[in-house]
Amino acid sequence: ALHREVDFEKAQLAFSLQHGLSLKIMNLAIADDPAFSKEPFLTVKNISLVFDALKYLSKKEVNLSKITIDSFRITIIRGKNGALNVWTKNPNPSSSAQPLVLPMILISSIEAGNSEVVFIDQTYQSPMRIEISQLGFSLRDFSLTKPFSLSLEAAILNAKKNVKVDGTAQL
Fold first, then answer.
1. Quick check: helix, strand or coil at residue 130?
2. Neighbours of 20 (CB within 10 A)
3. Which of 6, 130, 132, 145 sits between 20 and 30 A of 74, alpha carbons compared?
């Protein structure tokens, strides 16, 4: 669980035999750990997921045929003590909590555009800020265990796009 406040303006759920089940969420915001910032940790203008319901019913496979993210902004902060705001501890740990077991999830395509990543390092006397803007990427046949195709463009420490990467990646 995130243990962070999550808010959104609108959500739409639709089903069609051709595309399956789709979910679209508009103006999503996930709060930061208040020890780091009062600003949101993550904002997303639009995110949509397309789920192949027929494949799940026939093969018990969770197949997200497409994830599309428009205009996300994530702020990663390293505090003075070296801790990152990405890792938030559970405020009410329970020894009886069972680990979450998920079925294998297949993701055919992840696409994002018009996005930004901000990294703030507060371990320096004057905090260092690095911004990656105009970020767009596409991942095909995404997997946690196998290679997948990657295409990425961004403006790093620059007003115009100055980085382009195409290739194969593996986690």
1. strand
2. 20
3. 145
Does an H or E element contain 53, and which? helix 53-59
Pairwise CA distance, residues 20 & 50, whole Å: 7
- Distance, in Å, from the CA atom of 63 to the CA atom of 53, rounded to the nearest integer, reads 8
Q: What is the CA radius of gyration of the chain?
A: 18
| CB-count burial class (<10 Å; 0-12, 13-18, 19+) for 155 | middle
Distance in angstroms (rounded) separating the CA atoms of residues 110 and 49: 9
- With contact defined as beta carbons under 8 Å apart, do 56 and 65 qualify? no
Host H or E run for residue 59: helix 53-59
Q: Report angle CA 77, 81, 82 to the nearest 5 degrees.
A: 55
Whole-prediction pTM: 0.84
Q: For 106-133, what is each residue's pLDDT tens digit?
A: 899 999 999 999 999 999 999 999 999 9
